[in-house]
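Listing 4. Sequential folding, example run.
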Amino acid sequence: MASKAVILLSGGLDSTTLLAHAVHVGYAAYALSFRYGQRHAAELDAAARIARALGATEHRTITIDLGGFGGSALTDDRIAVPKDRDQASMSHGVPVTYVPARNTVFLSFALAWAEVLDARDVFIGVNALDYSGYPDCRPAFIAAFEQMARLATKMGMEDGPPFTVHTPLIAMAKADIVRHGMTLGVDFAQTVSCYEANDAGEACGRCDACQLRRKGFAGAGVGDPTRYAR
């Protein structure tokens, strides 16, 4: 019987490749998405389609309200999503698209479901190259959360395999992630990465996520299948 793993799935390029990777290496994938107060629901529609297409054993979408705190361009309409920034600007400092404590919260929910499933593995698609400004995408954060999980859970106190947070994309450039997804048969046209996608899932083409995504396809020598709003 395949080992169970909880896979954090946003519906974007990285997390879709992550899910395909987990399934490919033999895990029974339990995909977990969040309606957390983000600007649009198009990525959640994409996540549902992708979970079915890639053979997730189960897919759940949990509602939490990080938008109640605001503090991010992704959850607060009073803060504009940056557009048309150059690479130097995107790689400097913590961007306003950082959602406070988001990955800590998401991983905590994933840990809770993993305990119920008696699963020792969680996958998250963090990337320390393209999003180096996000403090919760760094290897040090992942290692610290992993250690906390082993101390704070029932399964961490019992004998058996240690709890592990898998980050197979963490040291990949976006082009490498695209190439890896292509080898796994990912249909990137089904994914939504844009910070301000419209209800139809069409991308703005100008936010940081869109620019990094476009750069990834170009670097991989793959045609960009993204649907852009006119």
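-- end of first protein; second protein begins --
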Amino acid sequence: MYVAVKGGERAIDAAHAWLAEERRGDTGIAALSVAQIREQLALAVNRVMAEGSLYDPDLAALAIKQSRGDLIEAVFLIRAYRTTLPRFGASSPIDTGRMALTRRISATFKDLPGGQILGPTFDYTHRLLDFALMAEGETPASVISAPVSSPTGETGVHLAAAVPHVTGFLNRDGLIQTETPGDSTPPDLTREPMELPATRPLRLQALTRGDEGFVLSLAYSTQRGYGRTHAFVGELRIGTVAVEMDIPELGFAVQIGEVEVTECETVNQFTGSKTEPPQFTRGYGLVFGQTERKAISMSLVDRALRWQELGEDFTGAPAQDEEFVLMHADNVQATGFLEHIKLPHYVDFQAELELIRRLRAEAIAAKEAAE
């Protein structure tokens, strides 16, 4: 028989104290500082900022520390804090064409104006554990002095000179679909509930703050044939961009800061339609921080969701189903609905239990009567 748990408040306080103790771990080992997390676990910080829809490395690092490294819990903390912040205005669209590049690669063209910049990447590592990292000491000098280089012979981080996008080269010959900006300001998913069918700007917002693993799985499914996405990475670029805000009293925009972003444009096949000749189409991804796996995944799913806009057939692939993708991509919403089932449901279960007992009794009585 199920009975109500007594002393719940005391038990919860004790659970919180135990959590704090587990978070700290062995007190004989130095505590991990927020600054260390921000600087040395930057990719985790970037993911929390992206999925939390708040660009603040310090707060993201704090959330990671508080959540004991549970990134979804950290995203939840950031979003909850975000709702308490006042909004003073809206910034102007960022200009990724003037990004201060730290990484820029293309799988479609070898020689690019400005060169390809490998930047800091795991792509060419051997995926072998480096046990030297377990040793105490300073970073090897070879790592500190390694420059960022490009085929043009330039070194160092590339400054924010105008660097054209690769898809612009295709656009000169009409080989890729021209993207036209919308006339109206897109809705803000962080302030307004999602409505379906969604416009492409709203879909992109949902994808950029969606769970990386979920978006990655959908992107992989399109590559395996569950969708119409056979893509080339036209360009992947990572760097910092200026954030500007229009000040009505001044009559012009002023720079209020800068953010690091990852941008990916994919080039996809398109057989044409009644109004368009055969040409390439685009998939697009833009995410806070160095988050290239997410940006590539986002661009593949974005392209898969454009099937109706481009006059293609719906094949039933999950990545083509707007409702399925957008309503399940949000890890905070999914976590809340999933984890609520571990909370007390005593009354609901008692009702189910009584129903099963009654049905069993009726079934047994019917069987005995038949015999």
